[in-house]
Amino acid sequence: MASVNLQQVHDTLVSVAFEAGRMILAANPSSISTDTKLNAVDIVTETDQAVERMVSTRLRAAFPTFAFVGEETYQAGVTRITDAPTFVVDPIDGTTNFVHSFPNACISLGLVVDRVPAVGVVYNPFQDLLFTGVKGKGAFMQRNASLEVEGKGRGEKKVRLPLGGLANPPPLGDLSSALVSIEWGSQRDGENFELKARTFRKLAASKENGGGMVGGMRSLGSAALNLCACAAGQLDIYWEGGCYAWDVAAGWCILNEAGGMMASGNPGEWETELDSRVYLAVRGASRGQKEIVEEFWRVIGDGRMEYKH
Ligand code: LIP
């Protein structure tokens, strides 16, 4: 891995995240201009674009030799993440939540080096909740995180993830005791959509009917927040196909540092690429990670999700 001062990157990303948070909170989702990308549910607002402009300006000034990939400036088939240190940024992850004022949206700021997540900062300004991770240095969560920078008091103490402690996190059982996060995503037809719909049904169905009888299913509406909730140990598993590198880069680093693991959302692939667009994340556990991945893959069966880059 190229020599990069990861702590310096982390500190800059935290400061950028708070600035983005102020911009997001200042926006009025009911009156901002909103456009669509792939289809009616794939939305972008003027705030997504303004935040990305601010982030890229600040990061290019602070780290002029690093590459930058952002959701709103990405060009399909053209933009590539190389081995170079690269900021991978989603200015608002959970845009649909944002436009509905549903308080589950965040800025997701990742640095990848050799295409491996090395720093992750995810900040939900609506809950003033900050998640951070630095490769080899652990992952943390902080509530009321912005109070200190705003001079309004002290943020709560940073707590190390997972919340139950890294040394001996609770073991994972089978899917029937698991809290699983899934997302419909924006593609609503074709084979990928059919496989997702079949799998959601099978996950919920009773074991007698060949299902996984999962304990519960959630959709946070943001890949980054799903990954952070796995890192915290609040979710056991998160499965998604169709989201992009900028949705997962930061959360992936935080997950790894909290003892979690990322496999492919397609059965049989223990390793997955940053831009594979198919992910299966599992929380840190003293045992049972591999077993729950295999059980999940059995529920998916023979199908595979395939997405363009
Ligand atoms: C969202 C993802 C989410 C996915 C949505 C969307 P956005 O990102 O984080 O996991 O299901 O379709 O892509 O568009 O809010 O940045």
Automatic annotation (TrEMBL):
The keyword Metal-binding applies. Mg(2+) 2 binds at residues 90, 93. Its cofactor is Mg(2+). GO terms for biological process: inositol metabolic process; phosphatidylinositol phosphate biosynthetic process; signal transduction. Pathway: Polyol metabolism; myo-inositol biosynthesis; myo-inositol from D-glucose 6-phosphate: step 2/2. It catalyses: a myo-inositol phosphate + H2O = myo-inositol + phosphate. Pfam families: Inositol_P (PF00459). It comes from the Eukaryota. Mg(2+) 1 binds at residues 71, 92, 247. Belongs to the inositol monophosphatase superfamily. This is Inositol-1-monophosphatase.
